[in-house]
TrEMBL record, chain A:
Residues 187-196 have a biased composition (Polar residues). Transmembrane segments: none annotated. Residues 146-165 have a biased composition (Acidic residues). Residues 107-128 have a biased composition (Pro residues). InterPro entries: OapC-like. This is Origin-associated protein OapC. Residues 44-68, 97-106 have a biased composition (Low complexity). Residues 23-213 are annotated as: Disordered.
TrEMBL record, chain B:
Signal peptide: none annotated. One of its GO terms (molecular function) is GTP binding. The lineage of its organism: Archaea, Methanobacteriati, Methanobacteriota, Stenosarchaea group, Halobacteria. It holds the Pfam family MMR_HSR1. This is GTP-binding protein. InterPro entries: GTP-bd, P-loop_NTPase, Small_GTP-bd. GO terms for cellular component: cytoplasm. One of its GO terms (biological process) is tRNA methylation. Residues 26-170 form the G domain.
Amino acid sequence: MPHQCIECGRTFPDGSKEMLSGCPDCGGNKFQFKPAGVMDSSEPDPTTSKSPTGSKSPTGSRSPTDSDPPTDPDPAPGFDSSSEADPERPSSDPEEPSSGPGRSPDTTPPPDPPASSDPPGSPAPTDGPDPAGSRPERAAGTADPDTTDPVEGDAERIDDEEPEDTAQASARSDVVSPDELDRATRETGSAATESGSVEPPASQPGVDELRDELNEQFESIKIVSPGQYELNLMELYDRQEYIISLQEDGRYVIEMPDAWGVTDE
Amino acid sequence: MGLLTSLRDSISRVTDGLFAADEPKRIGIYGPPNAGKTTLANRIARDWTGDAVGPESHIPHETRRARRKENVEIERNGRKVTIDIVDTPGVTTKVDYKEFLDHDMDKEDAVRRSREATEGVAEAMHWLREDVDGVIYVLDSTTDPFTQVNTMLIGIIESQDLPALILANKTDLPESDVQQIANAFPQHETIPLSALEGENMDEVYTKIAEYFG
């Protein structure tokens, strides 16, 4: 669980929107970032890139660029939602070093009791501009965002065996079902329409650009290493909440809309 | 019920209008790091209130928190304009502590400055969204204005329909190229100045009164 409330210790999966309105348990607004690989450590690795306000950890779930070249350079792997990209997804979980053969995504997600009760997926659709930004990636990278999402599927899907199996079966097959294709297309919008099929898109650079663009949208501040930051100005501008304090070792404080009396946009 | 609602709306509009007329416009001074934003803010504040806004420095990201100078009353051609000046941290897409190491700073201080500067950019972007009524965009006329930051910020400002005054600063330097700035943003008027030397401040004040009055 990459995020933890430093008041009560409650953890949140990376990409959780719950914490953006304060800790549901204690109301605290101070969180620390805990990459999945150092779950038990009280000091997260500051060199790990993270997205404090936002969505996805580049080391874990944001793997389209990682999986890009090896999968299939030609037919736009990130958007070829049928065969290659999907099985790669679960294996990119930082918890599991194993990748490639013998993958068993059903058992890959580490059981995490605190988050099992969380519904990280549920608040997302109503929360700010971020879901709009993160959904296309999930839809683009996975055939079925409801079943194989590496972030949301991390914990709460663990006991949901049936959809996982379905997703795997689907992922191993060559052709995506019309239903899934339709859903993925709807999720990604017009940008992915042409590449939503198994046919290669017109031009690879266009897809790469789009992927880069999408990746950029997921983070407002990327901590490259202590003292080195990359900022996504559009994301910072678009957010209602914003980071008011970055601290050492992955801690940060966000200002919440409630605190300044803004109810909606 | 409908009558009551519309009556309440009308009253609310009238009172809003009254308060709006009384309240000074909040003008954000934006731009990339080291463009001379604080120098300009101090120049304006000193000229009209006698006080400064904040310390100036040649080290980038000297301003890491937005600073405000309220009720700056500028008089131009018999007309008074009251504004609040918000001097914001320089906006950038990358902050690296290593760039501070050259300025006699140890690593710990440089890392802290870097962190604060990053928070400052987040704050500046937030202010742009929530809290400014107009923008003075300051550019260093000795550097190339065609940058991602400038394009993005000017785009945001335009999308917000905020009145924006573009200033080409540092005209006292020999390599200053005001035309380059004017060419970069032809849809806006570009005013040359040297905030440090006080050159062309008369025109700047006239334009401030015109744009934000």
